[in-house]
Structure prediction request, 508 residues.
Amino acid sequence: MKRRTPTAPLSAGGPVNATAPSAARTRTSPRRDAQRRAEARDQRGLVAARRAVPVVVAALVASLAAAQGTDVTDKITVAVDTLWVLITAALVFFMQAGFALVEAGLQSAKNVVNILMKNASDFMVASIAFWAFGFAFMFGNGTGLLGLHGWFLAGPDTSPLTGDAYKGIFESLSWTGVPLFAKFFFQLVFAGTAATIVSGAIGGRVKFPAYLVFSVVMTTFIYAILGHWVWGGGWLAQMGFRDFAGSTVVHAVGGFAALGAAAVLGPRIGRYQNGRVTAMPGHNMTFVALGVFILWLGWFGFNPGSTMGIVGDPGLVARIFLTTNIAAAAAGVASMIVSWMRFGKPDFSMTMNGLLAGLVAITAPCAFVSPESAIVIGLVAGVIVVLAIPVFDAMGVDDPVGAVSVHGVAGMWGTISLGLFGLPALGANGLFAGGGISFLLVQILGTVVISALAFGSVALLWMLLKATIGIRVHAHEEIGGLDVAEHGAEAYVNADALREPIIVGAGD
Prediction:
């Protein structure tokens, strides 16, 4: 008979290690088993509770909404939309830093403090002037030419109610269901942008006091009144003119205002010699690159934020993100290639300006075109800016940063492109989508009229300033730099002013 091989002794937890000196040391007690089973039950209960929380919250919201009509749901919608509007407004505000860096990098190191001061002053001035008068001129109830109500944001307003439920003096903004102060702040950052565009085109030779006066008039009257024609329910809006986020209202206004200011102010000393354009390169391309990336980021607030709400149609917001980005990328590629062909090397500043031109161009049609059309719009914008900058140089317009071409010319193109590529399914009857030519003609009319009046009104303003307080610094101040002449400070200090260390003892 075979001898049976002994097996390891069993315990409640399974076989005990035969090599253990004592099986009793590894044997699990009944009390310990019960404790483990209780811990397992507790863990399963905790997991189940976590999974149930969203279901319970959703059921609670649904029950409250059913008990109180749609009051709770409406409040949640308003809260989410308001948060969206304010976050995107903050992104647009951050674009002021981008503009400051691009302008500073493309100009001389001796004028950096002056450039930074102008960019900061733009928003300081706009914050007060637009609150007091500009917002009322632009969005207040009034005529087809300008708003006549809402000074200092005062007057009846039932925001965030929308449509027929809204009762107040800002009917042109009754389509968005956010509080009045959120509406104002979002529009304020746009007003600041329009004024800042001009700063770069007149850098290096303008008197700071004259610039401050211009900034007040620009944000209070020029930008606000021209904007009323489109976004305030004015005569162009009544004709069917469309500009979703401001290719014309913000950028063409700013760009052609820059043209008017630069034309009256005249070129920098040394820019033209013997009838030829003399290159005056910027001092810091790192600033330019960083500024462009900040602006690119800010445009994701500029365009998608112009929905002024996200709950109602998140798909639209996503579409605008896509068209905005892809147009910028296409424009950057186009300007790089064209500058490479023209100058023998891929020009960095031209590429960066081309990228910005693509962002400017897509701003009007971003909500109404396909991604494929956005690429075409961007490609054309990238080519236009490389061709336009030398044209304005040849005309004697000294624009150190290319603001006229990037914002003015590309802004007009973007507005017109909506009349070509707009899709009826998205709310625009573009020519290439079978919509006929009437909408295209309205787009051309609107952008040409607004651009021409921006140029003319700003040129007249600078002529008046020239005849009164003066607009240009003295030649020796321009040559020495505006940082010291206008502000008594330098952006870069080459040596420590304290030649010898000063030792200060304790108690001194």
User: Anything to note?
Assistant: Residues 1-26 have pLDDT under 50 and may be disordered. The domain at 71-487 is CATH 1.10.3430.10 (Ammonium transporter fold).
